[in-house]
Amino acid sequence: MTRNNFLVLFIVIIFMFASVIVVFYNSLGKDYVKSGGEIVENLEKDLNNYLKENDTKEREKIFLRIKELISKEKEISSYFIPRFYLARAFYLQSQAQYDEAIKDLDIVIKAKGIESEIAFINKAAVYEKMGLKEDALLVYENLINSTSLDFLKVRALLSKAILIEEKDKDLAVKVYEEIIKFPYENNLYINIANNKILELRQN
């Protein structure tokens, strides 16, 4: 599996996790809609659909909806701003506006909370796309040392291992070995790590 495939896989996982956040915020009732939560939810859904859609005309329709939702930033309450910036950063990343995406992600990171930890992963992915691998490694390392969420820690370890693999296969194997120690619910990453260990030891 290539690095690009890993990035696409993670983006899908992030939107799956965002749906869990949506369920929580929906439980807040009317205030959720009044404070701009509905705008954020629709933005997240459209970004997810834009990622999956293959038809050019349909993608253009979704793209226009995304731009309209992004223009409603002033309608978003501070409660939902981290989610809004997280979603907008993904949009900016998809348009290769990497510096602007980093700015949005830094805002989310400063806000703390679960969105902040997801923003660390996204920021590292943007650095990778910019070719700033050392910067990406620093961000992954920061998250590995700070997060208590296994699904984020194991994802950061996987990305770290892939980057390290290019210059130090032995060290990469050690990182993959850390991944296979995680609980079975992270078996997707464990399977990838096991396969990478076998591959690297054979070469």
Describe this structure in words.
The protein is an all-alpha fold. The chain is elongated and about 55 Å long. 79% of the residues lie in helices and 0% in strands. The model has no long low-confidence stretch (mean pLDDT 85). It folds into two domains: 1-131, no CATH class; 133-203.
Shape: elongated
State the helical fraction: over 70%
Give the DSSP E fraction (strand runs of 2 or more residues). Answer: under 5%
Largest beta-sheet details: none
The tally of strands reads: 0
Instruction: State the end-to-end CA separation.
Output: 16 Å
Summarize model confidence as the mean pLDDT: 85
- Low-pLDDT stretches: none
Query: What gyration radius follows from the Cα positions, in whole Å?
Result: 18 Å
| H/E topology pattern | HHHHHHHHHHH
Separate helix tally:
11
Structural class: mainly alpha
Number of domains: 2
Short structural description:
Keywords: Membrane, Transmembrane, Transmembrane helix. With 203 residues, the chain is an all-alpha fold.
Which keywords apply here?
membrane; Tetratricopeptide repeat-containing protein; mainly alpha; transmembrane; 79% helix; elongated; transmembrane helix
Give the helix/strand layout:
Layout: H1 3-26, H2 30-34, H3 37-52, H4 56-70, H5 81-94, H6 98-111, H7 114-129, H8 133-146, H9 150-165, H10 169-179, H11 187-202
Helix pairs in contact: 1-3, 3-4, 3-5, 5-6, 5-7, 6-7, 7-8, 8-9, 9-10, 10-11
